[in-house]
């Protein structure tokens, strides 16, 4: 009798143990506990054309982990970028007030004093620092004064280098796509084996390209070595100053004023007044600036909607004639062949999205991008307005932008028909905007440590699989024992 009880009890106990093991392995611990409190971080992205405020959040108990920082909210500052306040520096600080007041509301009060606040300025301020370092310093002091008046943990207002901007954009994209490290489905950290994606950013005053490469990087200025989560990455990066959307438009206008009497990239039927000061006060147009011009003069310019002439005008922005390395993108800048997948955000996204959504044209190859651009450049102002009147302020410039993007990607970076389809034009990953801001915060708050730290303390992926299989086997053996026992019991009672 005792043996019979044992024969039933043992498999049952085994079964129970197996099930408990499986449950313990499969239920992520954080789901069992109460939802964790959040921590917050704020980054002001002071771009050349406008400033955006991003508030990020992450579970307080996972400060050093990854894959878990997401965008909590954002705010667009009204008016121009902080560099546009060169003649009224206090205005730069004042412009941020509305968004900072929103941050006071968005971040719970008890977290205010421990919430880091950063301001990073990009190419607009790099240009101002070139033309007038004193004005650039006044603008930075003004925003610093405003930011220190808020209850957050303000950690400085800085101008990012082009290299930082490129690398932090690359870090953001790969962090959000979980290419560095990822929270596994059974509650542990795993290092995914997929590679990283390249990042292309088109801002108002500069454009950046950043990607991992196994080729030699012939110009040390383009090489960045990163150590993230115990893994080494060698990244090529370059930032082209004066190749952002707004500066490109100014440079094209300066070229038109010099040579033509109508703008070939503007649609037929479009006409506007151009303030000469707006065109010429940028260091990006200094080579085309007439010796004498009236600062306040306006000139009326109309569009001629000529795709071929527009292409020629845009091609003058690129210099392919010299290269002191084995290969260059343009302007004598070294670039290894583009490889792998890419994500193209900011104005790259807006431009291609306009071709796809508003013009309803496909953009999956260099040929299609070229054809779509031509079709856009050939549309009259009237027809364009009928397509999207809400975009009126930017509508006339889409042809120039698309022509520029097409030449930058195809002739400049040399995306051919084989690799062009590996570009994803995308501005967000999940709910989080892709740009340098998140990568900047992650680095400055030490959330992407160079070493393994505690990420691999938990059993690694292989052992988890083995353990799960083991528990399943235990259950199967127990079931088999029960079955055998039931069988023999039956045959015994039959006798
Ligand atoms: C995160 O790392 C820092 C520095 O190593 C450490 O001081 C801090 O306690 C860690 N925080 C958590 C929640 O593990
Ligand atoms: C402005 O440019 C100078 C010269 O390149 C540089 O030393 C300085 O750090 C820049 N200013 C800021 C605030 O970055
Ligand atoms: C292209 O760059 C080279 C070297 O910097 C320069 O000599 C040449 O004048 C440039 N060409 C044009 C068309 O700007
Ligand atoms: C440009 O538009 C005109 C009508 O506005 C049309 O007749 C012509 O075929 C178009 N050309 C191209 C290349 O699409
Ligand atoms: C990240 O921050 C550290 C200092 O906290 C700095 O030394 C490092 O260069 C930064 N990384 C990048 C890519 O700029």
The N- to C-terminal Cα distance equals 17 Å
What are the segments in which pLDDT stays under 50 over at least 5 consecutive residues? 29-33
CATH class of one domain: Alpha Beta
Rounded radius of gyration (Å): 29 Å
Spatially, the strands of the biggest sheet line up as 10-11-9-8-14-15
Ligands, ions, cofactors:
2-acetamido-2-deoxy-beta-D-glucopyranose
Backbone structural class: alpha/beta
Q: Can you tell me the CATH superfamily of one domain?
A: Exopolyphosphatase. Domain 2
Average pLDDT for all residues: 91
The percent range for strand residues is 15-25%
User: Helical segment tally?
Assistant: 17
Helicity range: 40-55%
Major beta sheet summary: 6 strands, mixed
Shape: elongated
- CATH topology of one domain: the name is Nucleotidyltransferase, domain 5
Give the CATH architecture of one domain: 2-Layer Sandwich
Subcellular location: Membrane
Organism: Monodelphis domestica (Gray short-tailed opossum)
Family: Belongs to the GDA1/CD39 NTPase family.
InterPro entries: GDA1_CD39_NTPase (IPR000407)
Textual characterization of the structure:
Among the domains are: 38-160, ATPase, nucleotide binding domain (Nucleotidyltransferase, domain 5); 245-429, Exopolyphosphatase. Domain 2 (Nucleotidyltransferase, domain 5, 2-Layer Sandwich). Helix content is 42%, strand content 19%. It has helices spanning 2-26, 29-32, 89-95, 97-106, 123-131, 133-148, 162-176, 245-259, 276-280, 307-315, 347-358, 366-377, 381-387, 392-395, 398-412, 436-444, 461-494, and strands at 38-46, 51-59, 70-76, 116-121, 153-159, 182-183, 189-190, 198-202, 206-212, 223-228, 231-241, 271-275, 298-302, 342-346, 423-425, 428-429, 432-433. The strands form five sheets. A six-stranded mixed sheet has the order 10-11-9-8-14-15. It has a five-stranded mixed sheet with strand order 3-2-1-4-5, sandwiched between helices. Strands 6-7 form a two-stranded antiparallel ribbon. Helix 5 (123-131) crosses helix 6 and helix 10 packs across helix 15 (398-412).
């Amino acid at each position: 009798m005792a043996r019979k009880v044992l024969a039933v009890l043992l498999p049952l106990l085994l079964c129970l143990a197996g099930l408990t093991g499986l449950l313990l392995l499969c239920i992520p611990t954080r789901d069992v506990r109460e939802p964790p409190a959040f921590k917050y971080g704020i980054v002001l992205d002071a771009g050349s054309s406008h400033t955006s405020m991003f508030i990020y959040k992450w579970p307080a108990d996972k400060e050093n982990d990854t894959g878990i920082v997401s965008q909590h909210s954002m705010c667009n500052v009204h008016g121009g970028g902080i560099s546009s306040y060169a003649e009224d520096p206090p205005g730069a600080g004042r412009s941020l007030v509305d968004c900072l007041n929103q941050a006071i509301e968005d971040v719970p009060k008890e977290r205010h004093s421990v919430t880091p606040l950063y301001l990073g300025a990009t190419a607009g301020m790099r240009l101002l620092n070139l033309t007038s370092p004193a004005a650039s310093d006044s603008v930075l002091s003004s925003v610093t004064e405003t930011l220190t008046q808020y209850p957050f943990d303000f950690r400085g207002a800085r101008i990012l280098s082009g290299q930082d901007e490129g690398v932090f954009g690359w870090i953001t994209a790969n962090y959000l796509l979980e290419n560095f490290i990822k929270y596994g489905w059974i509650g542990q950290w795993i290092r995914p084996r997929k590679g990283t994606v390249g990042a292309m950013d088109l801002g108002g005053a500069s454009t950046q390209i950043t990607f991992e490469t196994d080729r030699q990087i012939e110009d040390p200025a383009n090489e960045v070595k990163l150590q993230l989560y115990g893994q080494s990455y060698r990244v090529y990066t370059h930032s082209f100053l004066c190749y952002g959307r707004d500066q490109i438009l100014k440079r094209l206008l300066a070229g038109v004023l010099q040579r033509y009497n109508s703008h070939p990239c503007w649609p037929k039927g479009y006409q506007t007044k151009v303030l000469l000061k707006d065109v010429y006060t940028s260091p990006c147009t200094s080579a085309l600036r007439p010796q004498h011009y009236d600062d306040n003069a306006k000139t009326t310019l109309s569009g001629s909607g000529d795709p071929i002439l527009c292409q020629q005008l845009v091609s003058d922005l690129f210099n392919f004639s010299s290269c002191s390395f084995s290969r260059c993108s343009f302007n004598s800048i070294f670039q290894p062949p583009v490889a792998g997948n890419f994500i193209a955000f900011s104005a790259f996204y807006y431009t291609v999205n306009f071709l796809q959504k508003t013009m309803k044209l496909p953009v999956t190859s260099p040929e299609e991008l070229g054809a779509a651009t031509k079709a856009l450049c050939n549309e009259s102002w009237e027809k364009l307005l009928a397509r999207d009147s809400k975009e009126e302020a930017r509508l006339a410039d889409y042809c120039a932008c698309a022509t520029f993007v097409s030449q930058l990607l195809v002739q400049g970076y040399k995306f051919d028909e084989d690799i062009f389809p590996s570009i994803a034009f995308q501005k967000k990953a999940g709910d989080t905007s892709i740009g340098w801001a998140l990568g900047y915060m992650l680095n400055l708050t030490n959330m992407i440590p160079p070493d393994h730290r505690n990420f691999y303390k938990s059993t690694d992926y292989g052992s988890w699989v083995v353990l799960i299989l083991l528990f399943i086997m235990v259950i199967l053996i127990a079931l088999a024992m029960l079955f055998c026992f039931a069988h023999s019991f039956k045959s015994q009672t039959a006798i």
